[in-house]
Write a structure and sequence with these properties.
Blueprint: E1 3-4, E2 16-17, E3 25-32, E4 37-44, E5 47-52, E6 56-61, E7 67-72, E8 82-84, E9 87-91, E10 96-101, E11 110-116, E12 121-127, E13 132-137, E14 141-146, E15 152-157, E16 167-173, E17 185-193, E18 198-203, E19 209-214, E20 224-226, E21 229-233, E22 238-243, E23 249-254, E24 264-265, E25 269-274, E26 278-283, E27 289-294, E28 304-306, E29 310-314, E30 319-324, E31 330-335, E32 345-347, E33 350-354, E34 359-365, E35 372-373, E36 402-403, E37 428-429, E38 449-450, E39 478-485, E40 493-496, E41 500-506, E42 512-517, E43 520-522, E44 528-534, E45 539-549, E46 554-563, E47 570-577, E48 588-595, E49 602-610, E50 615-623, E51 627-631, E52 644-654, E53 657-667
Parallel strand pairs: 2-28, 31-36, 38-44, 40-46, 47-53
Antiparallel strand pairs: 1-4, 3-34, 4-5, 5-6, 6-7, 8-9, 9-10, 10-11, 12-13, 13-14, 14-15, 16-17, 17-18, 18-19, 20-21, 21-22, 22-23, 24-25, 25-26, 26-27, 28-29, 29-30, 30-31, 32-33, 33-34, 35-41, 37-41, 39-40, 39-48, 41-44, 42-43, 42-45, 45-46, 48-51, 49-50, 49-52, 52-53
């Protein structure tokens, strides 16, 4: 589609779109708002719209993530906006409902009209073809306004809060004296649910009640309409299928925990998640369970279904998954360290979602790539679906391709975000010392690749060995700092304080014939591979992971590895960032991993300092997960920094003590 104009994507609230989005995916851009995202994203044309808790509505360029305009709503939006016919409709927590005209380019929108609802607008608006905009309130009022003037068309009191989008569907009308020459008549109906557990179907033109259904439990999500049926679930874990024309119950299925989001509905199955983190596929015909997949990440958002048989699921703790709709198999997963507060919107080769920390993130497919790599065990492995058709399917092994989190926001004022690096960093992990990692069951152990001293003229020279005593491996946690400029002009630099790394990844066995790590082939089992690389001593080493594909092509991911086992590891191999004249259009990304901590979590921090040691920027977070930070060449007040040398200092502080690593940077305008 060319638009995602409202919550759940369509007027039927099915979150099923004729779109395409391939995995693996990587960051395209990140837009940073002043406050947590509370509404959106919705998309129209080349602009994404999102609202934040401080009452701001933003227009963001869909291609590059650049700031276009900001509009002060006066209060936080409590529901998604809706876009139709060049206008945007949105309600606020102070009871105002606004219509804004959407300009072209960077011009700000203009207020067309405002309506006082008298209480918080909580039900996401629906714009109809008949010229109405319909929304619900916290007090249970369902209100229909004329979309061109904002005058009230009708209002109905449903007696309990309306927390979810209004859904539209059409039912046939049988005339008393039907003639062959007459065209079949159809009636437009509106659906809405309340926290009292009721589902209402009302006539669009008048608001008159057509039928009601009592689910017996509180409803927090919108009913979804498809194939002449209505699908709705409640917090008691009961999912109902109703006949759209009459509201008669066709079937019900009880699930083990609360349903807090709408199902995504396909041609023959619907897909719904329960709050603790399990996705179910149910047959539309009778509600029987086709498969279930335990993601073990809390679910609050509606899944998104796309045409190529993939289901995208955003989890409340920041995890993002792509599942096969036929089997429930996890095809791809990413871990974002920031909680996700929205559904995923997919349009024009971009997947967008909002976070509790005020970020609007956009992902894009890795063009021509089938390789996803990440640190082993950074995300709990997903369990394979339990399905009668495949009872012997085993759980996915640990390290099954979670991807590194997207850039964290800077405390400075929001700048127009820049595209992310062209290639995703491969994940690297050192197994606990002194034990060697064990291969997955049924696979052969791959001997560690031995790297000679880096003395070849074509390769970077190794730093002089440190004369300081080596700390005990059991006392020092593993630290890895990956530094990459988004220009893609140079290899990302990976700084590590220990010489042995474990590389894990996931590939498509149907497309790949062989995987080589540091020039040595490794065995692939069920799409997973793992290899240990021993660099033997401090130095600077090139590292490549190569895929030989069955079509004769190859794909290679390269990194420059700096090993420094001293007490304060550092890299003099500089990473160059070349900002444009207006700072903030290019970035350098830092991803900090830490393992082998006795009592996680720990404080992870990153500081940018100039050549005199003066602090320029800084970020810190208490977490036991990998963190990604980004720097755009500005100081903490958003002012461009002068050209020259800088140092990125990463800090890990916890019960084991404090540990630092430093990476040399060069800021260059041309």
């Amino acid at each position: 589609p060319k638009a995602w104009p409202r919550a759940a994507g369509t007027v039927r609230s099915t979150a099923a779109v004729w779109a395409d989005f391939s995995v693996p995916a990587q960051p395209a851009w990140t837009f940073v708002a002043h406050a947590p995202i509370c509404a959106g994203p919705v998309i129209a044309g080349d602009t994404a719209f999102v609202a934040s808790r401080d009452g701001m509505l933003y227009g963001v360029d869909l291609t590059a993530g650049q700031y276009r305009w900001g509009y002060l709503l006066g209060a936080a939006a409590s529901c998604y906006p809706a876009v139709a016919d060049g206008n945007l409709y949105i309600g606020t927590e102070d009871g105002r409902f606004l219509c804004l005209s959407l300009p072209q380019g960077a011009d700000k929108p203009q207020l067309m009209w405002s309506f006082e609802a008298g209480e918080a607008v909580t039900g996401d608006p629906l714009v109809t073809d008949s010229g109405l905009v319909v929304f619900g309130t916290a007090g249970g009022q369902l209100i229909a306004l004329h979309s061109d003037t904002g005058t009230e068309a009708w209002r109905r009191d449903l007696g309990a809060s309306i927390p979810a989008p209004v859904t539209k569907f059409t039912r046939p009308v049988v005339l008393p004296r039907f003639k062959i020459s007459q065209k079949p008549q159809r009636e437009e109906l509106l659906l809405c649910s309340t926290t009292a557990g009721m589902v209402y179907a009302l006539a669009e033109h008048s608001g008159e009640n057509v039928w009601t259904f009592d689910t017996g439990g509180s409803i927090l999500a919108a009913p979804a309409a498809a194939a002449g049926r209505i699908f709705v679930g409640n917090r008691d874990g009961v999912l109902y299928c109703l006949q759209a024309a009459s509201g008669r119950k066709l079937w019900r299925t009880s699930l083990p925990d609360a349903l807090v989001s709408s199902p995504a509905v396909g041609d023959k199955a619907l897909y719904v998640g329960i709050e603790p983190g399990t996705i179910y596929a149910l047959a539309i015909s009778d509600g029987s369970i086709l498969w279930r997949t335990h993601l073990r990440h809390p679910l609050q958002s509606q899944p998104t279904l796309i045409r190529k048989g993939r289901l995208f699921v955003a989890c409340a703790d920041g995890a993002l998954f792509a599942l096969s709709v036929s089997s429930g198999k996890v095809l791809w997963q990413q871990l974002d360290s920031q909680p996700i507060v929205s559904e995923t919107a997919i349009v024009s080769g971009r997947l967008l979602y909002g976070t509790k920390t005020g970020r609007l993130n956009a992902l894009r497919p890795v063009v021509g790539a089938r390789l996803a790599m990440a640190p082993a065990t950074t995300v709990a492995p997903a369990v394979a679906p339990e399905t009668p058709a495949q009872p012997s399917e085993a759980p996915a092994p640990a390290g099954s391709s979670p991807t590194v989190s997207s850039p964290s926001p800077s405390p400075a004022q929001p700048q127009p975000p820049a595209p992310a690096p062209a290639a995703k960093e491969p994940g690297l992990k050192l197994p606990p010392q002194p034990q060697r990692p064990t291969s997955p069951a049924g696979t052969k152990q791959t001997p560690p690749a031995q790297f000679p001293s880096p003395t070849a003229p074509a390769e970077p020279a190794a730093p002089a060995p440190t004369s300081q005593p080596q700390p005990s491996a059991s006392a020092v946690p593993l630290m890895i700092l990956i530094t990459a400029a988004d220009s893609g002009a140079q290899l990302p630099v990976l700084l590590c304080n220990k010489p042995v790394l474990r590389i894990t990844g996931q590939v498509d066995e149907e497309a790949v014939s062989r995987v080589l790590v540091a020039g040595k082939p490794v065995e692939v089992k069920q799409g997973q591979f793992a290899a240990e690389v021993d660099f033997q001593k401090a130095g600077v080493y090139p590292l490549a992971v190569t895929l030989n594909k069955k079509d004769g092509s190859t794909e290679t991911m390269r990194r420059l590895v700096v090993i420094d086992t001293g007490p304060t590891p550092h890299s003099d191999w500089a990473v160059v960032i070349s900002p444009a004249s207006s700072a903030g259009t290019h970035k350098v990304f830092f991803t900090l991993f830490a393992e082998e901590l006795s009592q996680p979590p720990a404080i992870r921090a990153l500081e940018i300092r100039d050549s005199a040691g003066k602090l320029i920027q800084g970020w810190a977070e208490a977490s036991d997960k990998p963190l990604t930070f980004s720097w755009d060449g500005c100081d903490q007040w958003g002012h461009p920094c002068p050209d020259g040398e800088y140092t990125a200092v990463s800090l890990l502080k916890g019960p084991d003590g404090s540990f630092t690593m430093s990476q040399k940077l060069v800021l260059r305008s041309r």
